[in-house]
Amino acid sequence: MIQSILIANRGEIAVRVVRACKEMGIRSVMVYSEADKDSLAVRMADDAVCIGPAPASESYLKPKNLISAAVLKRCDAIHPGVGFLSESPGFAKAVADAGLIWIGPPAATIGMLGDKVEAKRSAIEAGVPVIPGSDGPITDVADARKQAKKMGYPVIVKAASGGGGKGMRIVRSEDDLEGAIKIASNEAEKAFSDGTVYMEKYLENPRHVEVQILADSYGNVVHLGERDCSVQFKHQKLVEESPSTAVDEKTRAKMGKDTVSLFKSLDYVGAGTIEFLLYEGQHYFMEVNARVQVEHPVTELVTGIDIIREQIKVCGGEKLSFSQDDINVSGYAVECRINARTPGRITEYLPPGGYGVRIDSFLYPGYMVSPFYDSLVAKVLTYGRDRNEGLDRMNRVLDELVLEGITTNCEEQKRIINHPVFRSGAFGTGFLEQIEEEA
Ligand code: ADP
Fold first, then answer.
1. How far is the CA of 235 from the centre of ligand 1 (A)?
2. pTM of the model
3. What's the complex ipTM?
4. Which tens digit of pLDDT belongs to each residue from 366-386?
5. The Biotin carboxylation domain covers which part of the protein (predicted)?
6. CB of 286 closer than 6 A to ligand 1?
7. Which amino acid residue places its CA nearest to atom 21 of ligand 1?
8. Which of 27, 255, 359, 385 is the most buried (most CB within 10 A)?
9. Domains (ranges, CATH) in the chain?
């Protein structure tokens, strides 16, 4: 049993993990950079340690500082949250080598899945359909030309170590292929210190549908249904919902089965997500996120499963306390990500309330939103018996939200939620770019 967790993160996910710890009777210890000493997670946690100056490269991304903090505070486990070092095999290994429990899958599994080319290979081996593409990394432009011709344009060049939509280039004709490979590779080298790129058939306006799982160390894997994350801007998710309007029962069953097969073939423990693109009724494996995701609360609302609690339990060595047959998806849930467009001090903050509402945030009046980190400041979620009820509630909730001192994308979110195309349920990943053009 885990007694004490060091939370190696910040912002809303840190608050989320502190809350789970409180409910489980686990001591929570926050780390913080000099810019975060007044953060809500630090206020709420049982204890806190400063790990360095504001830039993440000197604090949240320093394995040594984080592990020293855990040892100093006598923690027995580290929760990495999302982003930062949550998918760093080096950090996961260092945590285990220090005799601490890593709340995530084993380092070697993270390493394998972090290479999207390798991850795709393991999906093929597990019998999961993948997007047609280059057989491994692109090593030679002439060869890439041949492969692209065979697949047919458009194609997409993607970074093997990519994340956050970086290092991706859509290519519509052979003339642009060489340049796109160079640009994507340079971007990937800068962002991930790995210029390796691969190529896939570019699917026009597909749906992004992902499946959440929990796995224990006894070989049990349970999936918790899907989330639809097709509303994206520049390949970054903005609105997530469950269930997906694009998934029928047959596809749902196939995706669930494929997801469980893949995770069972891996040495996997904890929470994880498999991302698919859905195109003309067929799902195609895209990648695995070997950590909890920002949008996990959507699934919590429709299944009643506390994903962070279960993640902590299975990583602490417990067996999953439920089986696939115990999981029921009921009703509808949606999340709108509220992003800050500018840093600044919060002068007024009144979070919405009422039935079927959940706000995961770290804001409070007087809080200074720092320019150093991610722009996500609040996740606003609503639940309804069906999609229209959930979305009408979201419209009310976004109206009710009072957030002053910074500018956010709240108005844009309202426009999405009420857009007739979004309401119709028939849209793809290109939807937002289309309505941006209209506006
Ligand atoms: P990241 O890890 O950077 O988020 P992903 O591989 O998850 O990258 O892709 C992010 C988004 O990019 C997807 O949700 C989708 O909108 C788009 N995308 C990626 N690959 C393809 C593809 N082969 N065809 C069409 N869109 C794609």
1. 6
2. 0.97
3. 0.96
4. 999 999 999 999 999 999 999
5. 1-437
6. yes
7. 202
8. 255
9. 4-103 (3.40.50.20), 132-201 (3.30.1490.20), 207-438 (3.30.470.20)
